[in-house]
Specification:
Rtf2_RING-finger; Rtf2; 8 strands; Herpes Virus-1; elongated; mainly alpha; three-stranded antiparallel beta sheet; single chain
């Protein structure tokens, strides 16, 4: 069983011990998180978007997932919290001038630096390769390093000038603890948004119900007029209390006067509306040649004489 030709085996070749756990290379893990899409595992390319948990995606991959969630994808659990296009934010990144891309090592005979990143911090110049902590603003989408935000403390974005608060800062590719905190904040925001929507719906329902109630229940003045009219028709003034007027008459006579005045006002208003409608119709008809104003009278018309000359 081997050992022919004077070979001397070693102990680890003959005795098999427990298998060692395979350790993932840190550089490879950082490159996978900062240079590749978390959903499609393809290289990141513009436009690059992120979610409330700080993960990086290609925008086209997220749109394809939102259009068809039933399709089987390897990393669908990563984007299970995304409900629509409003849950993602496009990032405003700063290009790294030292980045040459894939053109640098086309033949494969040159050293490729794994730590060289595509984007940098616009304030400090740190490369976004995973060694430094980076954050983005939820208001404008600009990306900065944590060192820049600590050294230059402002409430205005360094790149676009939009104001922001500390609540708008979201860590990119944070640790498990940071991701859990971001998830709690995301759930709280969604609960608040649902509560505000419910309150708006209830207010809208109240405003809609109020005019319908007013239509069903007429005004108190109309009820008073109706009661006065019935009392005068029946010749009984007991339905209304007698309010002494300047001449000592009861309230029924005042109600009758008000009814007469309202009837005359309604008749005058209807007559005015009919007159205005007739005037509008006449002005509209006058635009056409078939109207009486466009036709010529006999005095205006001329007798045409036709003459057919013969030239030989």
């Amino acid at each position: 069983m081997g050992c022919d030709g004077g070979t001397i085996p070693k102990r680890h070749e003959l005795v098999k011990g427990p298998k060692k756990l395979e350790k993932v290379d840190k550089n490879a893990a950082l490159a996978a998180r900062w240079k590749y899409c978390a959903l499609s595992t393809e290289k990141l390319r513009r436009p690059i978007v992120t979610c409330d948990l700080g993960r990086l995606y290609n925008k086209d991959a997220v749109i394809e997932y939102l259009l068809d969630k039933s399709a089987d994808r390897p990393n669908s659990e990563v984007v299970s919290h995304l409900r629509g296009i409003k849950d993602i934010k496009e990032l405003n990144l700063t290009d790294n001038p030292a980045w040459e891309g894939e053109r640098r090592n086309t033949k494969g005979d040159r050293y490729e630096d794994m730590h060289c990143a595509m984007f940098i911090c616009p304030v400090v110049g740190l490369e976004m390769n995973g060694k430094h902590r980076f954050c983005f603003l939820h208001t404008c989408g600009c990306v900065f390093s944590d060192r820049a935000l600590k050294e230059v403390k402002t409430e205005i974005c360094h790149k676009c000038g939009d104001p922001f608060k500390e609540e708008d800062l979201v860590v990119l590719n944070g640790t498990k603890e940071e991701v859990e905190k971001l998830r709690m904040i995301m759930e709280e925001k969604r609960a608040k948004a649902k509560a505000t929507k419910k309150s708006k719906k209830s207010k809208f329902a109240e405003t809609v119900s109020k005019p319908s109630e007013s239509k069903e229940n007429p005004d108190s003045t109309e009820t008073v007029f109706a009661e006065g009219k019935t009392s005068t028709e029946n010749g009984d003034d007991r339905s209304q209390p007698a309010v002494p007027g300047p001449s000592g008459s009861s309230s029924s006579s005042n109600v009758v006067k008000l009814l007469a005045a309202s009837g005359s006002l309604a008749e005058s208003g209807s007559k005015r509306s009919i007159q205005t409608m007739e005037e509008k119709s006449e002005t509209y008809k006058s635009l056409f040649t078939s109207h009486s104003s466009a036709k010529r009278t006999k005095a205006q018309t001329s007798n045409w004489v036709t003459h057919t000359p013969y030239h030989f």
